[in-house]
Amino acid sequence: MEQGVLRHFEKGEDFVTVGEVCRYVGFIKSGTLKYLAFSSDGCEHVVGMEFAGEFVADFPFSFYGTPSRVSITAQLPCDIYCVSVKVIAERMGDDRVLSDIIMHSTEAVFSTVYDRYMALYTRSANERYHDLINRHPDLFTLFSLKDIASFLNITPTHLSRLRKNL
């Protein structure tokens, strides 16, 4: 991130907006973001969450110049070190270590998405909820109940019932 620029995003501000090409890869110094996809009726669905100490990007689509399928929006005010995708792509040609990092990052993204996909079919809502809370015990201080329910692909009412049964 040595070539990164620290940028501040207010709550509700987009890191990238659906339909636009993401120009940056970021490292979140502070704050949280959510990945939002929209159904044909315009309904918003939380399909990802990022936390301080993690990377944020429309990966790998930004490297292909493909318009984003999601909006990535600050859930809380965020400070993010942003590096231009163009700079990273140029360096990848000369930097084998960076190319390997990008390759491993692609594998990690695939693994995360595949694990979430499999969990939707093989784990109950209760099990997915407990997995998420175990990874992020402070989740309800960072995201709304509605956003967490959307991420788990359940209704807010169902999530409230799961919380009561803890």
Question: Which labels suit this protein?
Answer:
about 170 residues, alpha+beta, 7 helices
Average pLDDT metric: 91
Give the helix tally.
7
CATH topology of the domain at 5-92: Jelly Rolls
> How are the strands of the largest sheet arranged?
1-8-3-6
- Portion in beta strands: 15-25%
**Which spans of ≥5 residues are poorly predicted at pLDDT below 50?**
none
> What is the first-to-last residue Cα distance?
40 Å
Radius of gyration: 17 Å
Q: Provide the CATH top-level class of the domain at 5-92.
A: Mainly Beta
Biggest β-sheet: count, sense, barrel?
4 strands, antiparallel
CATH architectural category of the domain at 5-92: Sandwich
Question: Can you describe this structure in just a few lines?
Answer:
With 166 residues, the chain is an alpha+beta fold.
Task: Describe the 3D structure.
The chain is an alpha+beta fold and 166 residues long. Strand 4 (33-38) and strand 5 (44-50) form a beta hairpin. The chain has a domain at 5-92: Sandwich (Jelly Rolls). The protein has helices at residues 61-64, 85-92, 96-122, 125-135, 139-142, 145-152, 156-164; strands at residues 5-9, 14-16, 24-30, 33-38, 44-50, 55-56, 71-74, 78-84. Helix 6 packs across helix 7. It is globular, with a radius of gyration of 17 Å. Helix content is 43%, strand content 25%. The chain has seven helices and eight strands; from the N terminus they run E-E-E-E-E-E-H-E-E-H-H-H-H-H-H. A four-stranded antiparallel sheet has the order 1-8-3-6. The protein has a four-stranded antiparallel sheet with strand order 2-7-4-5. The longest helix is centred in the middle third of the chain and has 27 residues, at 96-122.
